Amino acid sequence: MNAIFLYLLKAALINALMLGFYHFAIRPGRNFKLMRAVLVLAIVLPLFLPLIPQPMLYRDNAAIPLYVFSLPETSTAVVIAPEENQWLIPMLQNSLYLGVTSILLLGLLISVISVIRKYLKTYRLSTPYGKVLIDNTTNSPYSFFRWVFFSEDGLLHPAANWLLKHEFSHVKHGHSFDRLLSGLFRSFFWFSPFAHFNNRLLSEVHEYQADADAIEEFGDRTTYSNLIVTFAGLHNQQPLTNPFSAHLKKRMIMLNYLKPGKLSIVRLLSGITIIMAVTLLSSMIRPDKPENISKNEHSFYKNTLLLNNPVAHTSQENISDHNKPEKSGTIPPAFPGGDEARIAFFSNNISYPTIAREKNIHGTVLFRIIIEKDGKVTNPSIEKGIGGGCDEEVLRVVKMMPDWNPGTVDGEPVKVEMILPVSFSLTDNKAGTIEDGKYSFHRIPEEEIVDKPVMQNDPAKKKPSTTNEVFTVVENPPQFPGGEDARVAYMQKAITYPEQAKRDKIEGTVYVTFVIEKDGQVSNSKVLRGIGGGCDEVALKAIQQMPPWIPGKQRGEAVRVQFNMPVSFKLGAKEKATVYTQPATDTNQEVFTVVEVAPQFPGGADAQQKFMIQNISYPAEAKSKGIQGTVYVNFIVEKDGSVSNAKVLRGVATSLDTEALRVINSMPRWTPGTQRGEPVRVSFNIPIKFSLGEKKTGK
Predict the structure, then answer these.
(1) Largest CB tally within 10 Å, which of 131, 149, 200, 464?
(2) How many angstroms separate the CA atoms of 98 and 1, rounded?
């Protein structure tokens, strides 16, 4: 209902502005036809003006249909909220609106039925102005569409012709159509006092117009004024009719001002300009929730991947594309390996500039790039910089980016413009760190960087080189001597839970990246994301003291390979550390992070979102303590599509972490990922967001 309520509020605002325009510019002119027309437009236009599409923006008269994506979050997250908070407020809101609207519509229907019943009980008499219906229960003549109701006493009144002229004037001008339209408008916009005011003003103008016709016919204002006084206090008809005895006081005053006045051009233009400006601005306001979410999901699901509305650009070489209707099914470009890989890429390649550190410069650099149809990164530029060498450093690393998976519209690749953030932070004792989204990574100072590796666009297709290139994907990945079981055993033996971390009850996962050199030695080890309490240092030391690995090979030659390893610290029941708990895997079963065809949940991303929402329950313990946050879970999609090795990369609380793992492990089989046409094991990350009521995040 959010979209409907937003529409109603926009319409009510435009109606209020038009009534202001009526009082400010139209009413002083006392032109009854124009007054009536504006009041009717104040009902009709608000129903259509909010539906005007958001204006299309153009920039520089340059380029082809270009879709702008802003990606403030690392991936799409599922928001889980307690069931009791999901529908209470929306239900009350919807019930109140629909209840009052139904009552007013029912009252309108009863009024129409009442007039029809009166019609069925009357008989007709001819008059000089037309046939009238005799209703002896009425005190005052009234009309409804082409029916004019009179009592027998009314026809015997000395000024009956005046009364007849007045009521048949209502029929001639079709005032009942206005009354019915105004009644419907007031029923749907009952919450706006201006809707009721509009109805009253329109009724007054109807009477002014009929009075003017009667005065024009007979020309005796004094007699007509006395006639109006005669019927004072007799109005007891249904609200849809046009009774003679309505608005008597204002009509008596208006009888002295029936001659039209002059309209102010300045006021007219000012009012029209204000209405147009507000209409244009209101058309840019859109509901913030996706419209394709099912009813059960609507109250608590929010997509944390925000896509800006398309910004159209034109160029001579692609002008024909611009004229085509925009297609649905827009998919944004993806960094190879996803947003986690993008973050790791910046972590491995960017440095905090010395000048920025010395001058205490920190903040967020926004850079703009274009992802071509073939995935190439072009036209890098700084959208918003902070100086101190940070802008130049970001551009340097952006130019090293590998090819992306291009964005598509209905399966067809398109050029896509993207704006992405890189945050440089020197706060909270994190000097020399850089953040991307919610993640922060420690950097190697510039003076310590030697032979910074150059990332490859497609390592699998590159020929080995004698340079210091570092590969992230190779044909034969490095292996720990003795295999995975030996690696797990080594880590468990080499790492001891730091006393400080146990004392401060710190637990979590430390992410360490390092390079396996051509001779198998471990080098360039550093912490990507730490948890403190001495855990970072312990994990880093264990990595640095590893024995030589069996080096990775590409096309038969040993190459340098980047390797990332999570080290999990978790306190047991007696505060004993269960360090680096990772299930043993088959040494012949390589796990890929980037593949040609990624795994897919059965039914696609929407089905995955629905599955998560339907199967996750907010733990009562976390709910009672007000605990909320995002749990990041990693798992492997096996060759047969089954889910295995699920573990929490970054947790919030034991109850939330456990619930997230439970649902991940209950997933149905996926469509497995493939590499060179063969199904392979693929590592996959999913963020699951738990949120309590109004404190929801990830809008």
Answers:
(1) 149
(2) 11
Domain identity same for 584 and 612: no
Which residue is it, tokens 């009667």?
214
Q: What is the pLDDT of residue 653?
A: 85
Tens digit of each residue's pLDDT (9 = 90 or more) over 44-64: 999 988 887 655 443 333 333
CA distances from 374 to 330, 370, 411 (A): 16, 11, 13
Paired with 679 in beta bridges are: 674
State whether 555 and 621 are in the same domain.
no
- Enter the pTM of the model: 0.42
579 within a domain of the structure (yes/no): yes
Beta-sheet pairing, 591-592 with 65-70: unpaired
The pLDDT value recorded for residue 64 is 33
Question: Is residue 474 domain-shared with residue 572, that is, in the same domain?
Answer: yes
The dihedrals phi and psi of 666, each to the nearest 5 degrees, come to: -95, 5
CA–CA dist 483, 588 (Å, integer): 9
Looking at the structure, tell me whether residues 31 and 126 fall in a common domain.
Answer: yes
Number of domains in the chain: 3
Give the ranges where 455-509 is alpha helix by DSSP (H): 484-494, 499-503
Cβ contact 211:33 at 8 Å: no
| Cβ contact 458:559 at 8 Å | no
Whether residue 429 is contained in a domain is answered as: no
> Do 484 and 561 fall within a single domain?
yes
577, 658: one domain: no
The answer for residues whose C-beta is within 8 angstroms of residue 649's C-beta and 6 or more apart is: 509, 566, 632, 633, 634, 685
Question: In whole angstroms, how far apart are CA 206 and each of 34, 151, 179, 227, 606?
Answer: 12, 22, 9, 18, 55
Q: Give the Cα separation of 384 and 361 in Å (integer).
A: 14
Inter-residue contact 648 to 662 (CB < 8 Å): no
> 314 is written with which tokens?
């034109």
Which one-letter amino acid corresponds to residue 267? R
Which token pair is 453? 């590796």
Q: Which residues of the chain have pLDDT under 70?
A: 1-2, 53-89, 232-239, 245, 256-258, 283-329, 426-468, 572-589, 693-699
Q: How far is residue 535's CA from residue 546's CA, in Å, rounded to a whole number?
A: 17
So what's the pLDDT on residue 289? 43
Tell me the backbone φ, ψ of residue 63, rounded to 5 degrees: 5, -175
Tell me which amino acid residue 113 is.
Answer: I
Give me the phi and psi of 402, to 5 degrees please.
-75, 170
Of 234, 259, 275, the residue that ends a domain is: 275
Of the residues 230, 254, 275, which one is the last residue of a structural domain? Answer: 275
Which residue is associated with the tokens 């948890």?
531
Contact between 374 and 413 (Cβ < 8 Å): yes
Q: What is the β-pairing status of strands 433-436 and 330-331?
A: unpaired
Question: What pLDDT was estimated at residue 85?
Answer: 47
Question: What SS3 state is found at 310?
Answer: coil
Q: Based on the fold, state whether residues 103 and 251 are members of the same structural domain.
A: yes
Q: What Rg value do the Cα atoms of the chain yield, rounded?
A: 37
Is 210 a member of any domain? yes
Same domain membership, residue 141 and residue 236: yes
Cα-based distances in Å from 260 to 172, 251, 325, 612:
21, 15, 50, 68
Quickly list DSSP for 82-134. Answer: -GGGTSHHHHHHHHHHHHHHHHHHHHHHHHHHHHHHHHHT-EEEEETTEEEEE
The answer to whether 48 touches 298, Cβ cutoff 8 Å, is no
Structural domain of 269: 2-53+93-275
**Alpha-carbon gap, residue 404 to 425, rounded angstroms:** 27
CA atoms 236, 238, 243, 246: torsion sign: positive
Distance (Å, whole) CA 534 – CA 499: 8
Residue 288 lies in a domain: no
CA angle, 270 as apex, 269 and 275 as ends, to 5°? 100
User: Do the beta carbons of residue 348 and residue 399 sit within 8 Å?
Assistant: no
